[in-house]
Amino acid sequence: MQQDLARRAREAIARGLSWLRQHEAEVASIDDLSAHYKAPYLYAAVGDPVRAGHYASLMQRRYQQPDGDFCTDRARKGWDHLPCSPANRYVYSNGWIITGLRKLGFYGAAARGLAFVRRLQSPELGGFFSHYDPATGQIDRRSLDTSSTSAAGLALLACGHLEEATRAAEFILRLLDAQPEPDRYFYCSWDAAEGLVTGVWGDEDPNAIRGRKQFCLSTETDPRTEYTWLIGKPCKFLSRLYDQTGDARYLAGASRLVDFFHRLGPERWHNYASCKIMWSSAELYRLTGRVRFAETAERILDWFCESQSPSGLWVHRLFYAKEEEQPLAACLDIVQELCAEMSDVLFDLSAAS
Questions:
Q1: Tens digits of per-residue pLDDT, 205-214?
Q2: With contact defined as beta carbons under 8 Å apart, do 154 and 146 qualify?
Q3: How confident is the model at residue 57 (pLDDT cuts 50, 70, 90)?
Q4: 3-36: burial string, b at 16+ Cβ within 10 Å, e else
Q5: Distinct helix (H) and strand (E) counts, the chain
Q6: In terms of Cα–Cα distance, which of 272, 275, 327, 270 is closest to 82?
Q7: How far apart are the C-alpha atoms of 161 and 165, rounded to whole Å?
Q8: CB 40 within 8 A of CB 49
Q9: pLDDT of 162-205, one tens digit each?
Q10: Over the range 85-106, which residues count as b (16 or more CB within 10 Å of their CB) and which as e?
């Protein structure tokens, strides 16, 4: 890894953590789960035991419900600034929390959280259901997707449930093989009765719950505005499963997702959602030594170093044009995620060199 890039990345992480410390009082006043769910993983990744302990305890005391789910309250997931996210990928945040709790030794809370998540795994397909209503306790057993499956899969791996994680990965490979135009589109959702969901066209609003961008990544639009996390999250999951099993099919699946990223236009490097491709590519480099994975991770990492404001904040330009428009919960989400993932990327790129 280039030493100058490593230095700049460490400095960017330090600025991000400084921004978080400067806003601690405001952060503590937010009750929405979306402002805090990545904090246990973040502080485990950067080695801050005091804040890690605080947020792990917060997840357990304030947000974990009697059934093991993590919600703002028993009838409301939260995510007030971005309601389309839990509406389409309910267990995404649960995966972050469980993985972070497991890193920090909160094994009981992680196990209770995983018991809830496991309820959403399809017995027939192995993937995870996208929709859950916390008010009624009802699971939509028709809709599955790769982001929910990958978030749950990472939590399963963190907790040692390899068999169930493998079933989840088989669903992702099946979905990859079902793509009708794999060079142009990546469809991320599955209907249990009808198969791959491709009838998603017509609404390009990025915040629409049923909008195309929630369900399909296209190579034919501005790559700065596409949800590249739709491929980044399953890529990370398949990478970690390959590490645990050595099964080349999971490496091949992860590589196909990176290949799809490279089919996007040149502005793919300047998309905040591409952080997950950075995150997974760095791990793939550590596992394989293939230079193209390192080059992908480093180029995205370089852009995140450049695009950070002097204060330590990033603006999530998929949703907001400038810092003043971005709600505090959204600021926390992006700073926590990027600092955590950049820390992991530094580890992976350094461990492979």
A1: 988 999 999 9
A2: no
A3: very high
A4: eebbebbeebbebbbebbeebeeebeebebbbbb
A5: 14, 8
A6: 327
A7: 6
A8: no
A9: 999 999 999 999 999 999 999 999 999 999 999 999 999 999 99
A10: bbbbbbbbbbbbbbbbbbbbeb
pLDDT in tens, 61-72: 999 999 999 999
Residue 138 pairs in a beta bridge with 133
Which single residue is written with the structure tokens 């806003």? 23
Sign (positive or negative) of CA dihedral 24, 26, 32, 34: negative
DSSP E strands: which ranges in the chain? 128-129, 132-133, 138-139, 143-145, 185-187, 189-191, 195-196, 216-218
Q: Directed axis angle between helix 92-103 and helix 39-46, to 10°? A: 40
**Number of other CB atoms surrounding residue 277 within 10 Å:** 28
Task: Give the residue-averaged pLDDT of 337-349.
Answer: 97
Residue 88, token pair as written in the block? 């389409």
Q: What is the Cα–Cα distance from 199 to 201, expressed in whole angstroms?
A: 6
Structural domains of the chain ordered from first start: 3-30+122-128+140-352 (1.50.10.10)
* Each residue's pLDDT tens digit, 146-173: 999 999 999 999 999 999 999 999 999 9
Q: Residue type at 2? A: Q
Kindly tell me the burial class for residue 232, based on how many C-beta atoms sit within 10 Å of its own C-beta (0-12, 13-18, 19 or more).
buried
Phi, psi of 304 (to 5 degrees): -65, -35
Average pLDDT over residues 322-341: 93
Torsion angle, alpha carbons of 76, 79, 83, 88, to 10: -80
Query: What was the pLDDT predicted at 353?
Result: 59
Alpha-carbon distance of 204 to 214, in angstroms, equals 9
- As a whole number of angstroms, the distance between CA 172 and CA 178 comes to 10
Mean pLDDT of the chain: 96
Nearest 5°: the CA angle 264, 269, 272 is 105
Tokens at 164, concatenated: 């169930």
